[in-house]
Amino acid sequence: MSADIRKIVTVVEETLIEGERPVSPPTRRAAAIAVIRNPHARKYVENLDDLIAVGEELGKVLGERAVAALGVAGDRVESYGKAALVGADGELEHAAALLHPKLGSPLRKVLGKGAALIPSSKKRGAPGAPLDIPLGHKDAAFVRSHFDGMEVHIADAPRADEIMIAIAVTDSGRPHPRVGGLKVSEIKGEDGLR
Predict the structure, then answer these.
(1) What's the rounded Cα separation, in Å, for the pair 65 and 167?
(2) pLDDT tens-digit profile of 164-186?
(3) How far from the centroid of its chain's Cα atoms is residue 156's Cα?
(4) Three-state DSSP class for 194?
(5) Whole-model pTM?
């Protein structure tokens, strides 16, 4: 792998009670986060192809780890999201290079599908800063029950010359959804919207 990875962290969150009501079956979210050295920290470079290639590699690696942690087959994943947190000596464009051009295709292969855009966020922060990974249904963006997010943080990352890259997946939507919208049973999965 061309990424200079310092560590990979995997987080699983299982919600058993929400709003003082049991959640049955429990909802589960998993995230896999890589902490990599930023090869362009403290300098401007025009060509970010190296980070784009790393994003492609991490789409597969982190996607596989997140799905394994969730404990379901890739085609059973319902929601996904991606995010990056750049250390102080990097640029937001470094996060964009990792997340946008090529990360999605290998992630979709791990899942067997993924017609909807992968929700994403990027920001700059110091070690321990929280990273919010937005979530949405993988095949239909209009499924409101799956508009969600997962917060992750790593106490010692990102250092000033590092970037945290995260992929999150879920086995369901929010617990007890009740704000209407397209239901999972109504998804056509043709255009990524409905």
Answers:
(1) 9
(2) 999 999 999 999 999 998 899 88
(3) 20
(4) coil
(5) 0.95
